[in-house]
Task: structure prediction
Amino acid sequence: MSKRKRVQPRQLHAAPSPAGLVLDAQLHLLDRQILDVDGVPVTTVDDIELSGPEPNEEIPEGTAPPQITALLTGPVLGTRIFGGRPPSSRLIRIPWKVVAGVDTVVTLGVRADSMDASWVERWLRNHVIARIPGGSHEP
Amino acid sequence: MKRLLGVALGILTAIGGFVDIGDLVTNAVVGSRFGMSLAWVVLVGVVGICLFANMSGRVAAVSGRATFEVIRERLGPRAGLANLGASFLINVMTVTAEIGGIALALQLASGVAYILWVPFALLAVWLVVWRVKFSIMENVTGLVGLSLVVFAVALFLLKPDWGALAGQAFSPSVPAQEGAGVYWYYAIALFGAAMTPYEVFFFSSGAVEERWKIKDLAQSRLNVLLGFPLGGLLSIAIAGCAAVVLLPAGISVTSLSQVALPVAQAGGQLALAVLILGVVAATFGAALETTLSSGYTLAQFFGWSWGKFRRPAQAARFHVSMIVVLLAGVAVLATGVDPILVTEYSVVFSAIALPLTYLPILIVANDPQYMGKHVNNRAVNIAGVTYLFVILVASLAAIPLMIATGAGA
Amino acid sequence: MSKSPRFRNVVLTLLVVVAGVLAGCSQQPSADALKGPAEEVSSAVRAASLAVDLRISDSTTAAAASTAADDMLGDVESATKEVHALSAQTQEERTLRNDVLAAFSSVSRALLHARDALSSSSNGPSDGQGKAQLSTVQGELRAATEQLDSLMTKAGIQ
Result:
């Protein structure tokens, strides 16, 4: 990969001192398990989507700091392992506003079945598992 | 009383569950070719599996997380995926070997060619994975598998020269007709058979399935510390039977039917029947464990919902992946490849992949974020690091030895 | 980066060594190349012999014993294939190879008879005719074992 030319800001302000819980995205978010409101595993945090300037874009003074807009999952994992960038339309997003808590796992405030992130699970449930006798019995 | 019963049950199932087709075949092969001179490897392997099974059980009970979830969180996606690939491949190989083992045992019982039993074994394994409760599955296969004690009984009935056997075991040397390379190759195979990594995935996921809490740890430690060494003794008895009957007769084991010969000689048809029952139960139990383990590792890496405590519909990807694994195993067997050969390779590849499983467990068991005050103490860490070194040496030596000896030929 | 050429050199050297070792293995029917298959067959015929013994003393079932004979037959087949794959250069080697193959085929014949006798012995060895048949087969297996053993001793395989 060719090295991108960095845009140097004229003057660096010290980072604002954070209030409350400090999360390291790499350490506390990436690759963590995501559970839904009932504690059912949904997926893992395969990547994170940030708001704010695109790479190589000039950052004007006083721009709001980037924020996490969504947790990403699905094929985006491949790009973290092998490099590259998927088209934005192919990303499966879990909007940050449904995240209820971040601990050793990330918990959501909604049900798994209401989300795009669980479409494979639902598809296999409806087309494979539900057609095998006993698939919805209590174990 | 009920508690005592629970403890006894746990220990008995741990003994019965220790031996699988890998232990069975490798120990018999080694006994028939090297006598008891590799018994020390079983001891080393048993201590290792006790150490790491305990550690992964503790991680699961304290953090409520199974091994593979934590492997990805700690190692990142790249190393995690490499680890998943290797572990999954070995799991599929072991599933294949175990299903082949069930079929071979049924052939021994019926005289009908094993390949005809394969579809039946597949269906039975899947049905149990699909419908039977986790605890029932574990207890039944473990208890019935305990009938492999017949190997120990047979060894006594054969009235061997105990002094000579002990001599071989305690002052091991390479037998004259075998090369040193082959000796060490089988040492690694035996080590891989005793320390099978799927055992650890299964153990830690099982702890989550059965919702272990910290207070259950004492019980689990007892199961492991008594059950696995007794299971190891059983392995040594298998080697002993082969060493007493087959080695002097100039027979080296290449098939399950030969493993049965010493037992039949010692105890007649009754012992043979008990042996076949035990082999079916042990391989069946291990087929369940490996099938579940492949589902566990995949689901835990990708964050899918998993577990037998859920309805299959609530863990659709988990169940579909296990069906695929079972079908893949049967497809391999359908090519007519010798299941014993698959077994022999699976234990060596297990040995090669051992560091991938055991290093992350050691790392996580020291991570206070998951473990709080239950992190490893110093003694456990020293033992763990020592074992990791042994595991690493075995893993690195396996492939060169495999090439140099023509896979132990 | 200085590490990687050195690493490559080490790997290359290793590969060369392995290739050398592999090339050093003779593909001619010398005593060395015949050792593996001959030992395999010798082990197989002895195992079948033990199975027949156990069946005569009623210690094992017809199913288990005939399975053993069948498995051993498979081992002999693969050993025979292995020897067939060796190409003889000299007259001496050709004779040795043919002798070995002849011994293998008498073992194989004896094993076939053993398997048939064992699987038809389901009435139990109390059946006089079955017992006689098993003893005949046992004699055949022993003869084949002796033939192979004497050949192995003669050729210096062991």
